[in-house]
Hints:
This protein is α/β, with parallel strands linked by helices. It has one domain (about 5-260): TIM Barrel (Alpha-Beta Barrel). It is built from 13 helices and eight strands. The chain has an eight-stranded parallel beta barrel with strand order 1-2-3-4-5-6-7-8, surrounded by seven helices. Strand 7, helix 10 (about 220-225) and strand 8 form a beta-alpha-beta unit. The longest helix has 13 residues, at about 5-15. It binds indole-3-glycerol phosphate. The site of indole-3-glycerol phosphate has 18 residues, from strand 2 and strand 8.
Amino acid sequence: MSKERIDLMFQTLKEKNEKAFVAYIMAGDGGLLTLRDNIQFLQESGVSLVELGIPFSDPVADGPTIQEAGLRALREGTTLKKVLNEIASFRESIEIPIVIMTYMNPVYAYGVEQFANDCELAGIDGLIIPDVPMEEEAIIHPYLKEKQIALIRLVTLTSPLERIKAIAEGTEGFLYAVTVTGTTGERSQIHENLGGYLQKLKEISPAPVLAGFGISTHEQVKGIGGLCDGVIVGSKIVDSLHFGKHEEIIKLINPEKTLVQ
Ligand SMILES: O=P(O)(O)OC[C@@H](O)[C@@H](O)c1c[nH]c2ccccc12
């Protein structure tokens, strides 16, 4: 399946005239044995794709909530190898695409080729590696391409237009539009020119554009999602799972569902 599973997901959403909702979670937060149930819960709540973070000791782009989740996961003894083995054991029971978000260091330690092989065995559909700029993708892209695993690129508010074009041209699966300057985490205010920025990205990018960073309410999900192809929510999901507030996640995606139940 791989990259194709992501493309199919967007195709299905388009047919239903719906936007994508991507949930980021930290692998191993709460123990790896909770991973399958958490992903199953997210799928049932209407999540279109799961972005699964790999805990790492030096997470430069992560804000406090994700950093703390990473520390909890590391204390549980979570490793990249264990995560991939765990996913392989339940992948068939989950339908939605699973994308891994990791820094490059754990992948180097694993061995790049072995990592690509094991991602394929685990049914991983795409990768986000925030500390590998497009100029350096050759260290991993050929191995992923062979396995049809998408390498999803990020653009930021501060990228110059020419660079945004080059990034968008070569992204696979979707384009991750970072909507704040800074690290991950909840923000009450959204960037003043977000509409213009996302509109520009939509014009430029051949792939769907998803907005992430600082989205934590249903109003933001609707508002920002309406400006592009969907949203990515991390910190709010991570905290809700950690504190057992699953209801909050349902509310974020579909508040009516909470009322009916
Ligand atoms: O937590 P937020 O603000 O909702 O943002 C999503 C983000 O957490 C997730 O996509 C992510 C976690 N760590 C990252 C590092 C780089 C890029 C993206 C990420």
